[in-house]
Structures are given as C-alpha cells and as structure tokens.
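Quick question: what would this complex look like in 3D?
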Amino acid sequence: EPEVTQTPSHQVTQMGQEVILRCVPISNHLYFYWYRQILGQKVEFLVSFYNNEISEKSEIFDDQFSVERPDGSNFTLKIRSTKLEDSAMYFCASREGAPQYFGPGTRLTVT
Amino acid sequence: AQRVTQPEKLLSVFKGAPVELKCNYSYSGSPELFWYVQYSRQRLQLLLRHISRESIKGFTADLNKGETSFHLKKPFAQEEDSAMYYCALYTGNQFYFGTGTSLTVIP
C-alpha cells in the first residue's frame, strides 16, 4: 500500500539557520498539507496546498515558513530562520478525496 | 469557529471497561467524519470513517446528525488502545481536526 514518506526523520539545527523538510506524497494525490506537533501537545494545522498554490494557512504559518512543490513528487516545508520554539514534529499529509494520509513525521530540534 | 470539538483532553479507563471518546462537529452540509489514532511518537493513522460503518480493532463510531456527534466507542478497552485519538471532519473542501483525546488504559 502506498505511503507518504518524509525525510529526514530527525533534523537538528541551530537557531537562525534555514531548514527544509521534505515529503513525498502518495503519487496520485493532489492536496498536500503540513502539520506541526510540539512534544506532548496536539497536532496543529499549518498549511494546505493545491494546484501549486497555498489554499489555506494558519496563523502559525508566518513569513518564516514557505512551501513548495519543486517537482512532480516532492513537497517541501522551508523555515527560513529557525527559532527554539520551532522544535516539534512536522507531519506531511496528502489526499485525493478523503481521507488524508499522514507521513511518519520529521522531528526538528532547534538548539 | 471550532468545527470539531473533543471535550475530553485526557481520558483514563481500566482494562476491560467500556470506553467512549466524544466528538461533536459543526457543519451545515453533509459531513464526512473520521477518527485517527496516534500511538506514541508515530504518525496519525486512519482508524475509522463513518461512511464505511466498519469496526476496526473493536472500535465503532456512529454518525448522529441530530446531535452532530461522532463518538468513538469500544466495549472492552485494551492496554494497546492507549494512544491519542483525533476526530476529523471533511467538508468536501477542507479537513478540520479536533484537539485530540489522550486515552490511557490502566492495567
């Protein structure tokens, strides 16, 4: 069964550095999402992406964040200048209709 | 406006006891409702969707349009059911997740 994949599984970076989190959605899916989960807390919606543009974003998704689908398979989340509070698990999800299917997550640690 | 409400942040039950995780939604159209489960430090996995009316791992959920609810139930909780449970609403355009209920099954 096809799955959403994410790389890396764990990323450690210094405050102020740029990071790019990568996701490979399920191949025939058209809608893509990023979610964030701070350790021990709920899953929070960041952004949804369809037809090469952002369709919705939360207030968490400020100017430090951007998303891109650079080719036919990858979907990336970039954080321009990381802060300590960006430390979290980042989940990618994709769907064709419903339901959404989630990736295994990337644990981002900002030191 | 909060479209999906899970009123219990934490829920503890004893092994073998019945469990019910509550979910209420707000949507004027025809909703599609889902339950997702997240075991410790893992991805969210689809557990149930109301359309399929199936039972997975002993869990069932019935959509009650009159009460706008989609509560998740299991008659006899098991230790391996300890996890985070998220209710989700699909409006045909967007997904909305509840804040989650952390279920702990006490041996």
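Answer marked as accepted. Chain A has no helices and eleven strands.
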